[in-house]
Design goal:
The complex is a heterotrimer of chains A (100), B (473) and C (476).
Chain A lengths: L6 H10 L6 H22 L19 E2 L9 H6 L4 E2 L2 E5 L7
Antiparallel strand pairs in A: 2-3
Chain B lengths: L3 H9 L4 H19 L2 E3 L2 H16 L11 E5 L26 H8 L3 E6 L33 H8 L5 E6 L5 H7 L2 E4 L19 E6 L2 H11 L29 E5 L8 H16 L3 E5 L7 H16 L17 H12 L2 H14 L5 H24 L2 E5 L15 H5 L6 H6 L2 E9 L5 E8 L4 H14 L4
Parallel strand pairs in B: 2-3, 2-4, 7-8, 7-9
Antiparallel strand pairs in B: 1-3, 4-6, 5-6, 5-10, 9-11, 10-11
Chain C lengths: L6 E12 L36 E2 H13 L3 E2 L5 E4 L9 E4 L6 E7 L5 E11 L3 E5 L10 E5 L6 E7 L6 H17 L12 E11 L8 E6 L2 H20 L8 E5 L4 E4 L12 E2 L10 H9 L5 H12 L4 H12 L3 H9 L4 H14 L9 H12 L5 H14 L3 H8 L6 H14 L1 H9 L4 H13 L5 H12 L1
Parallel strand pairs in C: 12-13
Antiparallel strand pairs in C: 1-10, 1-11, 3-6, 4-5, 4-15, 6-7, 7-10, 8-9, 11-12, 13-14
Helix pairs in contact in C: 2-3, 5-6, 6-8, 7-8, 7-9, 9-10, 12-14, 13-14, 14-15
Classes of the chains: A mainly alpha (100), B alpha/beta (473), C alpha+beta (476).
């Protein structure tokens, strides 16, 4: 199954992850990822159909907090870390396409 | 270097915290350039904190069980106003506006957080060779790696710069460097120590834990930082357990399992150390049983799907918008791509790609989905094992510290170093590595004790037995 | 609007509502509309490295109220990450609920009884807000954008209907009723214009009896009126495409209110792959039986029940009265009416004053206490002040927050002495002998003329009932 990993798969995945790869990197990553996935193929042989995934190892549930206001962080401190700030907001280059 | 216990006892009785920090500053100055342990040091801030501790003691206060003890902090743990990089270019220059809970807990116990130590970038690696700011050298043999990803924190203690340090363990990143550097290292039960402020690698596997020279010191540090945190939804509900008080409980009547799969493939000298440990425990009154847990062999594959999958999502936030480095682009997508491409190293990119693929449409069931089921099978297998034994014994790593560059050609070779440590992370259980014997070139070997969730006290007691058998009090 | 040539539209609606909690879903920052940008933010809702979410109990409470009000099954649920990159998303993933949502399999009955299925009503976090710098303020053609994360992390419930609506009128009625329900249970303030309630419409067309066609999702609908226009435009657009022999591409389309059309956003190369997986930083929600029972026991009355209660009080309800009742319930003014009725005021009067005067200044309603409302219309009912005066008192209380007694005193709204009134009436009778003759003969319409004249002469200070009594007494 992992042998099916193609260059196109790698390029598609890189785009999904917002990474740009050189041609050489695409080939290298294809080989390396295929090797790791090859090891993962041994998992497929397990008949784990009726096994449920584990949510938390010790079965914790219902961790909640009260609806009480806590201090926010000073905007100046927050914006000081921003690569680009304007009018109290974070600046970004133009956005192409609306949110999904 | 004095133990943490000694320093704390002394400071609480009126001894100088400043002197303890001065010793640290001197030790760092002596060897940091050679070893590249710390990425950031603020000696003045630490000395000021030490002075404040001394003043409080003089005023009749008790600062806590770690009074005046310098503790090195892995650079993936947030500290207000202190540069925190995760050894990555993408976070170069970032100063968090808040403290991780463990930092607050350290201070509440009177400890002094000291510097930020080097790691594999975003905690992904087993040698600290993946740091964007150069590797850290093993203080015992600088031509070799200290292990990873918490290589810097291990080296800080091994080089006697600080008596204690904090690291993080996702697949072995505390235990493996502890073994390679001759230290005690603990991966606590999942949820025992708050993850709030720990920069996430794999959320369901990460835990912060201690490095120390002695079992008692490790217990002291772990006790200080454990306990429920309302800011971490996955944190266990109970307060910190009592650990130091049980360190000398011994192992009489305990069942210890020799697990075949936890020594399979290890070097001869490593296996010899585990055998030595087995005998020491038997001599101390433990009953030895033999177990086989074949499910453990699936750990590596499951881990290298689950961890990268979670990481691919956790690392999405590094997009150049709100903090960290930014590389400009003609539109926001191009900017994000350029930023991440320039900011992340090869191993991080590899794991992000692996994780993205494992989660993607059409492949989820076969990869990530299947890995989660395997995880359940492993938890069940451990549970059965703990019906027959109180703790499991095995190797921590397959070999002693290896030379730089010896495992970097093939990622799989590096991943295999984690084969004995990964299963505990998947199960969420506790494990400790303690030095027993030496191997090639006199380098230390770590032996691992694994226990069910919340069994730290018994694990410490067993590790203490091994420590005494090695002639270390 | 009915479609031509045997076509039928199929509509499903996704409604997102912000919850009326004090703080955000995962952190203690204030959930506050209109604050200065980036002043209600913290490491958690900014997605700073190392931050972790903890669920707001009140958000769960309100989500369960919504579920119960929509007849859903409340179940143990989990959270998932929906992964995609966008600058208004601090973590570049959104925490939502995917395969096991808190509320499932419910329904909403429209006022006319038509049932729309509710597939799910799940919890999720809101994103930040972007403003675009460029000529139009629209995203196309913008040079740069600015992001405000005040809204990031605000708790949302997304309510997904089945594809059960067949007309734009039904869609409108669904949204109106849903809003009334959300407001009635205290979960939301239902302000579409402020964005605290957002509607996306999924629209497809088919010939009656045929399988469903391909649907398009329409976004950017900001009012009930836009909803109707957008749905009708889209249905006709799809029909035209299909009748021309084309096919409908499944896509998201943007409603442009000014131009009155939907358009495709520049389509991306590949569809989004959200790579949903269980959120490892949260643990499952399993509300206890006690908690659920508590929510059910304290669930406020729902609009349908309130409309029934008011109708029963009226008795034989005309269409106009049904509209009045619907308005009163829609605007959550029923408390005024029910309290007034309990205090002995006729229901029709209470309904009228609530649906007209109070409704007209709905944003000021906090200035008008129930007591003040009752005080005013009780005086009107008793004849102490006229209808005109009563309306003015209510509007003044709403505008100023003063008391009815104070306003009546200030404005001199004292009952006209009946001698003075009789005198004025005599004068009007004398000036209009032909009309008076018709009134005496029993023409019922003429009484309005006389009342009108008296009102003019007394500048509205006469009490209509009293005038009628006096006229009738004079007729004999």
């Amino acid at each position: 199954m992992s042998a099916d990993l193609t260059r196109e798969d790698v390029i598609k995945v890189a785009a999904l992850a917002r990474l740009r790869l050189t041609d050489a990197e695409v080939d290298l990553f294809r080989d390396q990822l295929a090797a790791v996935l090859g090891h993962a193929d041994d998992l497929a042989s397990l008949g784990a159909d009726n096994v449920a995934p584990t949510a938390h190892p010790f079965g914790l549930t219902n961790v909640l907090r009260e609806d009480v206001i806590r201090p926010s962080v000073d905007r100046d401190i927050v914006l000081a870390a921003a690569p680009d700030a304007q009018d109290g907001r974070f600046g970004v280059p133009r956005i192409v396409g609306e949110a999904p | 270097m004095r133990s943490a216990l000694d320093i704390a006892q002394s400071v609480r009785a009126g001894g100088s915290a400043r002197a303890a920090v001065e010793a640290t500053v001197a030790a760092v100055a002596a060897r940091n350039e050679e070893l590249n342990v710390f990425l950031h040091v603020d000696a003045d801030a630490a000395l000021a904190e030490a002075d404040a501790i001394d003043a409080r003691v003089a005023a009749g206060e008790d600062p806590g069980i770690l009074a005046g003890v310098p503790v090195a902090i892995k650079d993936n743990i947030c500290q207000t106003g202190v540069p925190t990089t995760c050894s990555s270019k993408i976070l170069e220059g970032w100063r968090p506006p808040y403290n991780a809970t463990v930092i607050d807990r350290l201070r509440a116990a009177g400890a002094i957080p000291f510097g930020k130590t080097n790691l594999d970038e975003f905690a992904m690696g087993s040698s600290t060779e993946n740091s964007a700011f150069g590797p850290t050298r093993n203080p015992l043999d600088p031509s070799r790696v200290p292990g990873g990803s918490s290589g810097g924190s291990a080296a800080a203690v091994a080089a006697n710069m600080t008596p204690l340090s904090l690291g993080s363990d996702t697949g072995g990143s505390i235990r493996q460097p502890a073994a390679l550097c001759g230290l005690v290292g603990v991966k606590p039960t999942y949820g025992l120590v708050s993850r709030y402020g720990l920069i996430a690698f794999a959320s369901s596997l990460d835990q912060i834990g201690p490095f120390a020279h002695s079992v008692t010191d490790a217990a002291l540090l772990l006790e200080a930082i454990s306990g429920h945190d309302p800011l971490d939804s996955t944190s266990l509900p109970e307060p910190a357990p009592s650990l130091v008080a049980h360190v000398n409980d011994g192992v009489a009547g305990k069942r210890v399992a020799w697990v075949r799969e936890l020594v399979e493939g290890a070097d001869e000298s490593v296996v010899a150390s585990v055998e030595k440990a087995r005998e020491a425990l038997r001599d101390a009154g433990a009953t030895i049983v033999e177990l086989s847990i074949p499910e453990l062999r699936l750990g590596l594959s499951a881990y290298y799907l689950i961890a990268p999958a979670e990481a691919s999502s956790n690392l999405a936030r590094y997009d150049g918008v709100r903090f960290g480095q930014r590389v400009d682009g003609e539109d926001v997508t191009a900017m994000m791509e350029a930023t991440r491409t320039a900011g992340f190293g090869a191993e991080v990119k590899r794991r992000i790609m692996l994780g993205t693929y494992a989660l993607s449409a059409g492949y989820f069931d076969a990869y990530y989905g299947q890995a989660l089921k395997v995880r359940t099978l492993m938890i069940e297998a451990f549970s059965r094992a703990y019906g027959e034994a109180d703790m499991l014994l095995g190797a921590t790593t397959p070999s002693v510290a290896f030379e730089f560059g010896s495992k970097t050609k093939d990622p799989m070779a590096m991943y295999l170093s984690d084969v004995f440590t990964i299963p505990t992370n998947l199960a969420g259980d506790a494990a400790i590595s303690v030095p027993v014997g030496t191997g090639e070139a006199g380098l230390p070997i770590g032996v691992q004790l694994l226990g069910p969730g919340r069994s730290e006290a018994s694990l410490f007691a067993a590790a203490r037995v091994l420590e005494k058998a090695e002639g270390r009090s | 609007m009915s479609l031509p040539r045997g076509w039928e539209m199929v509509i499903g609606l996704e409604v997102h509502t912000e919850l009326l909690t004090k703080t955000k879903l995962f952190c203690g920052c204030a959930n506050d509309f209109g604050a200065e940008p980036n002043t209600n933010v913290c490491p958690i809702c900014l997605g700073l490295p190392g931050s972790l979410p903890v669920i707001n109990r009140e958000a769960v409470e309100l989500a369960m109220r919504i579920g119960l009000a929509l007849n859903c099954r409340i179940q143990d649920s989990t959270f998932h990450r929906k992964n995609y990159f966008y600058p208004d998303m601090p973590k570049d993933y959104q925490v939502s609920q995917y395969d096991v949502p808190i509320n499932t399999e419910g329904y909403l009955d429209l006022p006319d009884g038509y049932r729309v299925r509710i597939e799910r009503a799940h919890m999720e976090e809101d994103t930040g807000k972007t403003t675009h710098l460029g000529t139009s303020g629209r995203i196309h053609g913008a040079e740069r954008s600015l992001v405000d994360y005040n809204r990031s992390g605000v708790p949302l419930v997304e309510i997904v209907s089945g594809p059960d609506m067949r007309t734009s009128a039904q869609a409108r009625a669904y949204v109106a009723e849903l809003r009334a329900i959300l407001v009635a249970v205290g979960a939301s303030d239902g302000r579409m214009e402020e964005g605290s309630m957002r509607v996306d419409a999924n629209v497809s067309v088919r010939k009656s009896g045929e399988p469903f066609g391909t649907r398009c999702e329409i976004k950017n609908v900001n009012s009930l009126r836009s909803l109707v226009r957008a749905i009708e435009y889209e249905a006709l657009r799809q029909i035209e495409v299909l009748e021309d022999g084309g096919t409908i591409r499944q896509e998201t389309r943007h409603w442009d209110e000014d131009r009155g059309e939907t358009s495709t956003l520049r389509s991306k190369e590949q569809a989004e792959d959200y790579r949903y997986f269980l959120e490892p930083d949260l643990v499952p929600l399993a509300p206890s039986a006690e908690w659920r029972a508590n929510v059910a026991a304290h669930l406020p009355a729902l609009p349908a029940a309130l409309r029934r209660e008011l109708s029963d009080l009226v008795g034989e309800v005309t269409d106009a009265q049904a509209d009045t009742i619907a308005t009163v319930v829609d605007l959550s003014l029923h408390d005024y009416v029910l309290a007034a009725v309990a205090a002995g005021v006729p229901v029709t009067l209470a309904l009228s004053r609530a649906a007209n005067e109070v409704a007209s200044q709905i944003d000021q309603r906090s200035q008008l206490s129930t007591e003040a409302f009752i005080d005013t219309i009780r005086r009107e009912n008793a004849g102490e002040i006229s209808a005109t005066q009563s309306k003015d008192v209510l509007l003044t209380v709403l505008a100023t927050g003063s008391t009815p007694a104070q306003i009546i005193a200030d404005k001199g709204y004292v009952q006209m002495a009946s001698d003075d009134l009789t005198g004025i009436i005599d004068g009007i009778i004398a000036a209009n002998p032909d009309d008076w003759a018709r009134f005496v003969e029993g023409d019922p319409k003429v009484v309005q003329f006389f009342i009108g004249q008296v009102m003019k002469a007394t500048k509205g200070q006469a009490n209509g009932k009293t005038v009628t009594e006096i006229l009738n007494a004079k007729r004999g």
